[in-house]
Hints:
The protein is an all-alpha fold.
Amino acid sequence: xxxxxxxxxxxxxxRVGRGASVTEPSRGTSPGSPRARAAARSRQAxxxxxxxxxxxxxxxxxxxxxxRLGIHQRIVLDHIEIAEVIARRYASPRSDWSDLKQVACLxxxxxxxxxxxxxGTDFVAYCVPTIAGEVKRHLRxxxxxxxxxxxxxxxxxxxxEESHSLVQALGREPSSQDLAGxxxxxxxxxxxxxxxEGSLRPASLDVTGxxxxxxxxxxxxxxxxxxxxxxxxxxxxxxxxxxxxxLAPRERHILYRRYFEDWTQAQIALELRxxxxxxxxxxxxxxxxxxxxxxxxxxxxxxxxxxxxxxAPLISDLAAAITSDAETASxxxxx
Length: 335
């Protein structure tokens, strides 16, 4: 924890952050040691601030609303670093530190407005649980990307507290069965609460892996599965291959040059020593043969009958593509 700007805040920070006061010298410490002198100065600073705060609240009670607002602002500024210490205690990589700090400051303002001097004079003892409650409420209501039920959140908090004791008792990380036995809860709710940990902040698709391997330098988005366009055309390719087997070698050669090697009709005509118009006519005949082979004559069927699901769209799409290419080839040849 970074050092506070003065001894007064430093004493409160250590007391709030660690749950114990260090203003009293520890046993075995001589009164003249540096630690004892620092503890005495911190104790004096705490007493001075407590008296100053009590005087502020007494003045605010007898002041006008405008003057009371200014006095409350001085009290907030005098205790602002207590809010920062509490916010830092609940900070984590999954929570924004600036948001927690603002929530803690709002809790401090709420504590100043709600403090009643008739019920006590120690404002620090009142504001610390008030600020902590505001931060916890913020984390409970706004800290989840996907908010689970309240019962799951409470069980998750119990698991987190019980895990530390089980680690020391067992000498290892506790399993789900260990947690269920220690908390007297069923195994199902324990697993659900453990899995809710990922609901706080989901993994980013751009974060690279942290393990050794080929995927460690790639983001999650690059290794997730997606639709394979080549696989979607696999059935169509099989049908075309079967239809091409019924063509003559010369026809297969022309088809290969035109649609696999992307040759122009002029290049094919030059290789075969024929005219471009002849190549266009041959392509039209080849595509007509393929269309007949793929679609075939329509079988007689009642009007209510429908073709098998998935097969008719595939053949009709292929037939439309062949027809379109044949028309294009015919128009190019006639031109």
